[in-house]
Amino acid sequence: MSTHAEPEGGRRPVRQLRLVVEADDYEAALAFYRDVLGLPEQAAFSSEDGARVAILDAGRATLEIANPAQKKMIDEVEVGRQVAPKIRVAFEVDDARGTTGRLVSAGATEVAPPTVTPWESLNARLDAPAGLHITVFQELRTLEERESLEGFGTDDSRDPTS
């Protein structure tokens, strides 16, 4: 595990990652992500001037930082060509094939069907409401099993000369 994950004093300086997305069709986006994808609503707020927001619980959040070569490689593995914008949102699910079918039925456009990746997950790409390019992925192996795969590990555990 990375030594960078343990902040000084054992306290985490960031408690939550919240991705804020502006949706022109708020109702359609809310129905898609809450009702079809299944993200539970934590809170919702509105004002007299018509402003509305819903905060949906997406479970554990991570921020994946990739260099251009990694982004290109992931697009090639999952889709076969360059398609993703600078930001892509990924959701871990229990059933990538079933979830992909439900999301397509609810209005998402399938960019690439569920594909087994070299890191042993089943990933599908979709263009979804609110202008998001998303991945739904299902882990096919445990973290411990994946750690034994070529190229899988933390930056701290890799040879700095490679």
Structure description:
With 162 residues, this protein is α+β, with helices and mostly antiparallel strands. 23% of the residues lie in helices and 24% in strands. It has a four-stranded mixed sheet with strand order 3-6-5-4, with helices on one face. The protein has a two-stranded antiparallel ribbon with strand order 1-2. A hairpin with a 3-residue loop joins strand 5 (121-128) and strand 6.
Structural features:
single chain; 24% strand; alpha+beta; four-stranded mixed β-sheet; 4 helices; two-stranded antiparallel ribbon; 162 residues; globular; 23% helix
Distance between the termini: 19 Å
Number of strands: 6
Question: What fraction of the residues are assigned to beta strands by DSSP?
Answer: 15-25%
Q: Output the structural class.
A: alpha+beta
Helical proportion?
10-25%
What's the main sheet like?
4 strands, mixed
Low-confidence stretches: none
CA-based gyration radius: 18 Å
Give the SSE string: HEEHEHEEEH
Shape: globular
As laid out across the biggest beta sheet, the strand order is: 3-6-5-4
- What is the average of the pLDDT values? 89
User: Count of helical segments?
Assistant: 4
Show the helix and strand layout.
Elements: H1 26-36, E1 41-46, E2 52-56, H2 68-78, E3 89-92, H3 96-105, E4 109-116, E5 121-128, E6 132-139, H4 143-147
Parallel strand pairs: 3-6
Antiparallel strand pairs: 1-2, 4-5, 5-6
